[in-house]
Write a structure and sequence with these properties.
Elements lengths: L1 H31 L9 H17 L13 H6 L6 H14 L23 H12 L5 H15 L14 E2 L6 H7 L2 H16 L9 E6 L6 E7 L2 H15 L5 H18 L21 H15 L6 H20 L10 E2 L12 E2 L2 H15 L8
Antiparallel strand pairs: 1-2, 2-3, 4-5
Length: 380
């Protein structure tokens, strides 16, 4: 008869644990949003942002891989709560942006055997950030870019081997790293960006589609997913402006600057009155912090380009300052940037979660730093 007592007790304990696993995060989110956005001084805000970024770089918060808020304990036990690849480059971005010099980087390990490698765009973005942070060497970066160049051959890179026929805007995060490596890698980066400009942009709005499918004759691309996805627009304009700082080729610089100016012209009219950009640019929704931070940072970089006319530079800088003001209103009292859209799980499947995201934290810090200094120029 003892099992009649033990079994219900175990069942109750498991149920309580599952309930707490679902309920505690909701309660903590509410508690941490108390006094949200009460920042007045941009310098104080940036310092607190950097402190929070360093904490996250040392103890990386787990990024949910789905919108599921119930049964979280079961996802954790199955190892499906988060995605390691998703965290890789976001953590590297935090190490670089927050100047987390004492944060461990032993999580960035490349397999020694080529046959074992599953190197993708995220690895290039992570290596680029760690190189700028002084944590890896130029040769380490080239190990990654050489593998990507080999994968692409004379073509361009897919975001994932599971969908080799599609070209995602997310893949463009690798472009600055490829330009930095030079040679064939820089050629690949230029092909990747030109291909997206020719096939992945809306002819009406100039916004990038989430992805596109090249046609057999490469005459045009078939847009798929959301056009005007906020973070996707951030990937596009950041790839252009950051790549502009990593090439010394005048012809490539001219193309990148022209494309970046067109991207800015397409995005500036959709800036919300509070200074942010929403997760879908067609919707005058609440601002989404990752899109706001990425687009604002790119505009701040663009405003520092000497080749940009002063009137355009002033317009970009004003928009970047407004984006900073918006992000200040979305920052918790401990310096954590809130209200970032969660992970996108598939083409056309976009997260409805809005929570802190290391990506938003890193780009908000980069935006704050870029507005303090206008010393960035094209070329190395």
């Amino acid at each position: 008869m003892r099992w009649l007592i033990i079994f219900p007790s175990v069942l109750a304990a498991v149920g309580l644990a599952a309930l707490l696993a679902d309920g505690i995060p909701v309660w903590l989110r509410w508690l941490r949003r108390i006094h949200l956005g009460r920042w007045q001084d941009p310098a104080v805000w940036l310092d607190r942002l950097r402190q929070a970024g360093r904490r996250q770089a040392k103890h990386m918060p787990r990024i949910p891989a789905s919108d599921q808020t119930r049964g979280v304990l079961w996802d954790v036990l199955r190892g499906q709560y988060t995605n390691r690849r998703l965290q890789l480059w976001q953590r590297a971005a935090l190490v670089e942006a927050a100047e987390a010099f004492d944060a461990p980087t032993d999580w960035f390990v490349l397999p020694e055997s080529t046959a074992e490698r599953d190197i993708r765009a995220e690895h290039a973005a992570a290596a680029y950030a760690l190189l700028k942070a002084g944590r890896i060497s130029e040769q380490d970066l080239r190990t990654v870019t050489d593998e990507l160049t080999s994968q692409a051959g004379s073509g361009t890179l897919p975001y994932t081997p599971a969908l080799p026929a599609l070209r995602f805007v997310d893949t463009l995060m690798a472009c600055p790293a490829l330009f930095r490596a030079g040679g064939a890698a820089a050629d690949l980066s230029f092909r990747q960006l030109r291909e997206y400009a020719e096939n992945g942009l809306s002819p009406v709005t100039g916004w990038p589609a989430h992805c596109f499918r090249p046609t057999p004759d490469n005459a045009c691309g078939i847009p798929l997913g959301m056009t005007g996805w906020g973070r996707g627009c951030g990937f596009w304009i950041c790839a252009l402006t950051e790549s502009l700082t990593e090439t010394a080729d005048p012809a490539v610089q001219a193309w990148l600057l022209s494309a970046a100016r067109k991207a800015a012209d397409a995005l500036l009219p959709r800036q919300l009155p509070g200074g942010g950009w929403s997760r879908q640019l067609l919707a005058d929704d609440r601002p989404e912090s990752s899109a706001t931070a990425m687009i604002g940072y790119a505009l701040a970089l663009l405003s520092a380009c000497p080749a940009l006319p002063e009137s355009d530079a002033a317009r970009c800088r004003q928009a970047a300052q407004a984006a900073r003001t918006c992000l200040m209103s979305l920052t918790r009292r401990d310096g954590t940037v809130d209200f970032a859209q969660g992970d996108t799980r598939a083409v056309g499947v976009y997260s409805t979660r809005t929570e802190p995201l290391p990506l938003a934290q890193a780009y908000a810090i980069r935006l704050g730093d870029a507005l303090i200094s206008r010393t960035r120029t094209p070329g190395r």
